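2024-03-11 09:14:02 INFO worker-7 job=invfold-0412 stage=load source=structure_tokens
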């Protein structure tokens, strides 16, 4: 078991390099993404990094037409909940898909995106 917990900074560094990772609880097997301090299933702090394939399916989505000021020039854009093949869900931006073509069940693949110098989790068509 490890007392070291992956940080959000490390998570986004990996993402920027094109690697999507999660953490798995070595005690109960729970999977978390992005990293957090304690396992939501058993409340332990026994994490090990797990590489993810990056393939998934859109479960739900919304179109952001009135964004926060920091993203004003990007609207409209799609934010979706994606279920990865490993079973974990992640909220991410959907890119390279016309707004009207985004739908639940659409197969997608992880793609890091950089917005204003910061890395974000994105998905494009598989």
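2024-03-11 09:14:09 INFO worker-7 stage=emit residues=126
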């Amino acid at each position: 078991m490890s007392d070291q917990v992956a940080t959000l900074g490390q998570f986004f560094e990996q993402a920027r390099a094109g690697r999507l990772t999660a953490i798995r609880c070595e005690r109960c097997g729970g999977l978390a993404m992005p990293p957090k301090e304690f396992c939501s299933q058993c409340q332990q702090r026994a994490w090990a990094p797990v590489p993810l394939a990056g393939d998934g399916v859109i479960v739900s989505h919304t179109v952001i037409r009135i964004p926060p000021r920091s993203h004003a020039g990007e609207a409209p854009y799609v934010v979706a909940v994606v279920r990865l093949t490993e079973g974990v869900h992640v909220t991410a931006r959907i890119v390279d898909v016309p707004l009207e073509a985004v739908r639940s069940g659409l197969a997608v693949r992880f793609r890091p995106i950089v917005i204003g110098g910061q890395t974000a989790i994105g998905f494009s068509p598989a």
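2024-03-11 09:14:09 INFO worker-7 stage=report msg="The CA atoms of residues 15 and 67 lie 23 Å apart."
2024-03-11 09:14:10 INFO worker-7 job finished
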